[in-house]
Amino acid sequence: MRCGMPTRILMAYYCSRLQTRLAFIDAMERRQKLFLEKLTASRIFQDYKQAFESGTGLPLAVTSSQSWGLPHRFGEKENPFCSLMAKSSKTCAACLEVQKRLSDESEHGPVTLTCFAGLCDSAVPIRMGEDLIGLLQTGQVLVEAPDEAGFSRITRTLIKWGIEADLKDLREAYFATRVLEPDQYQSFVSMLHIFAEHLALVGHQLEIAAESRESPVMRRARVIIEEKQADDIPSRDVARMLNTSTFYFCKLFKKATGLTFTEYLTRVRVEKAKNFLLNPHLRVSEIAYQVGFRSLSQFNRSFRNLVGQTPSEYREARGVSPSS
Fold it and tell me: By Cβ atoms counted within 10 A, which residue in 42, 124, 224, 238 is the most buried?
């Protein structure tokens, strides 16, 4: 404690420190997301994903270690049973809890967990040196043949949770779920572990290439935007921080990103909002102002233009029901 300081000033000091720390964490999460987008767009990842999914019949996704969701949702290899489960907020929440545990427990090595319905999900860390940059995820598979007893346990759980489901469709999807021997499934996870090490090398090369291409002014501009995206931050203020003219900065920014400053800032805010929308305790209006939009209508319009859905539709598609 800082003795002699009034409580009000002391609280303001620690709140300021906390806000600075949260801004730094948010900037790191955004940087990691952009990096993972480049990694998943790389030819080596796309070729491996196609080979893995074709050869095993299992889904494969790369996710951030800083956030969690349903990695295989709407994917080509998504298990139909899991797709049905994701449509209810209660079962979706149970699936998200497994994903959170995978994210928390996979920092030091591959982890496999089982959901309430008996399906396995696995996460394999991708590391660059000491830094955890993402996770390779697969699963939605059974390692024991489905039976009537297991399906009865699932339906009892759904009834207990007050969920109405079409048992015919649910039964069909459950008994059609891919079944693998435990050793066979773990061999697939081991394959991902090897690939994660290879991806780390590719990621290092991508990082070096990006740093060599981008000017110091642009690198600093991205950091400023990430730190201040929730504020009212016009391009002239960023240009002033970079000791350049507004005209020169805007021209350089458009050349480097292919977007105007306003377009880029809007995309950053919408990406941040997509993470907040997975939290059922936040209202859409709260999220809009929290990420930097000055009106709800502006937020809704920008979100629909970039995502193709309204914020409410985005939530509904992911099984998130806002708390009353």
Answer: 124
